[in-house]
Each structure stands twice: as structure tokens, then as C-alpha cells.
Give the backbone structure.
Amino acid sequence: MFEDKEDDIESVLTFYIKDDGSTHIDISLSNYEDDTMINFAKLISNLSLPQLQLEAITMTKDGLIEEGNENACEIFLIEVAKNAVKNKINDFKPKEDNEPCIKPSDMF
């Protein structure tokens, strides 16, 4: 949790590397309300490397379950899955070009 209650920071995800080269992740959530979990899922979904996403998702899931917040965990995991589907759909959306697939000059 956050020390300064005046902050409007809802969640924090920190990656760091120790002297031995090991990578660590710290996750801080201000609360376990639905909106917080949905917004945190957006943050996780925007990580570019799948390895980072998976590690952050796993740590979040384990931490929420360990603290007895199964409902928050469920909301978080569902939102991560929804974001992944949205991202994949956006990857396959056709780009809007006004050029024909086959140009008339290609036919000669």
C-alpha cells in the first residue's frame, strides 16, 4: 500500500535488477476494488514483452490469492484476457488504404 494517502496513485508496477543480475517485480495496489483491478490489468497488458506480462500476471495472481482476494484476482485475470483478445484483434484489422489490391498497371 502507499504511505501517503494524499496520492491519487492507484497501482504501481516496478521492475528492478539486483547486483546478481536477477530481475524482480514489485506490485503495489491502493485497493482491490473492481476499477483498480481493471486499470491494473490495462497496465500489465501494455507490457511489450510476453515474459514480463506473464511474470507480472503470475505475481499479481499469487499475491491476491495469498491475501484472500479471490474476487479481485478473478476480475484482474478476466480483464487481462479481454485486453489480450482486443490487442490480437487490433493486430489483424485491415489497414485502410485507398489503393486497390491489384493495380491496373499490374494487369499488363
Remarks:
- Strands lie at 11-17, 23-29.
- The radius of gyration is 20 Å.
- Helices lie at 34-45, 50-66, 70-92.
- The chain has a mean pLDDT of 84.
